[in-house]
Alkaline phosphatase
Amino acid sequence: MTSTRPGFDRRTFLQLAGVTSATVALGIAAPDAAGAAPGRPLRDGAFSLGVASGDPRPDGVVLWTRLAPEPLAADGHGGMPLRQVPVQYEVAEDERFRRIARRGTVIASPELAHSVHPEVRGLQPGREYFYRFRVGAQLSPAGRTRTLPAPGQRTGSFSFATGSCQAWYHGHFAAHRHLADEDLDAVFFLGDYIYEYGITESNLWRRGAPALGPEHRVEIETLEQYRLRYALHKSDPHLQAAHAAAPWLVTWDDHEVQNDYTADRSKYGISPEHFEHRRAVAYRAFYENLPLSLAALPNGPDGRVHRRFDVGSLARINMLDTRQFRDSLDLPAQQRSMLGGEQERWLYDGMVGSPATWNVIANGVTVAAITEDRTDQWDGFPAARGRLIEAMQRTSNPVVLTGDIHKHVAAELKADFADPASRTVGVELICTSIASDGDGAPTDKYAADWLQHPYVKLYDGRRGYVHCRMTPEELVSEFKIVPWVQADATAPIETVARFSTPAGSPGLHRKA
Ligand SMILES: [Fe+2]
């Protein structure tokens, strides 16, 4: 780092930062003196990847942006100089930023792709805020966010949407355009934020897409390639609008690293050493590009994204990691763990004793029993699923939120899936993809596999998201679709099914 400020070199800067120098370098918190080394002004368009907030708490939220004046620069650096850049943020009670609640400065550094993740604290519970960033003379677009209610507070309602699987090359993000218009307290993203495949004529179904250079044609595997792929996805204006509309709670599935990987194993014959490196850079790029707190910064190939949120007394939300800790399919099915021992204990400890009316389990892959050859889903982990179902029977109103399969499915979860007359212990709401698999159709060749089960109440193979509204009395889930995504982003939104789940009586009841 070179300094243009007399007597203020890198060493002085680090001394001033003192014990916080590590966090300064990570773009989390910076002392007021951190206006170091402004260098030449950045090129216009520093905020071309948008802004985001996430992981809301009663007293704060994580803000996010990543500076990238040239987001699709082939080297993955977003057109940024390889030096640290101070970024100011402000959080206001009003959209015009007249009543400022918090402001501060963080450092965007090349080590984290010039992303910043300030963790704002000292906010009021259960209220709306607006935020924006500034670098030099450039001001970011404003985002809207919302803190969670105070712990234990009686909460009248909690509205959220769930989304997953946004293969940029398969279609436009029309679903995000509509999601951004909803009045939401939160958005859950359940995995496959990016896809790792090379983008070629055969899979580029998004009509009118900008011409992409050869660097996009190969399967991604380096840190720079993952960064570039996130930038490609995040260049979509409708995804940016969805991030700017509400705080997101994200988890990952497989394509953030590689299709169908299991813990430390690729299914494509990559050596363990190579795959460990790949997982490390993929997890790092995930952190860099999403509004996650420092706790999610991976340590080499190890990341922590399972975490818990309480929405007053109304809901407890358990975000799961169903990829990193799962056992290999080489083990006998009855011995396989999906979550790993530590996460499984953590989940049941938090669910079974939970005082919340609703207990949400946000997870990557389908829990409901469908076919035994679906070994990438909980169907491949029958004993582990049995323990989950058993824990759900001792939990108040469990609700599983799932992505992954690129179909809308609503299912009742049974005490014994082999006996459809057995007790319903909870519900599973599976959201279809945002874009993966292109336009889709209401029904397809897979529908019969799902609809053969009386506990599966809905199947639809088009693109969209699920909207949910929880109150102390009821959960209403609405399955929304857009009729097309390949041609353009103009498709209208339609609700294909609406279900009521009364508190105290698990099940799915069709509403008009
Ligand atoms: Fe997917």
Observations:
- The first strand starts at residue 51 and ends at 57.
- Residues 103 and 114 are 19 Å apart (CA to CA).
- Confidence is low (pLDDT under 50) at residues 1-25, 30-36.
- Residues 165, 192, 255, 404, 406, 433, 436 surround fe (ii) ion (CB under 6 Å).
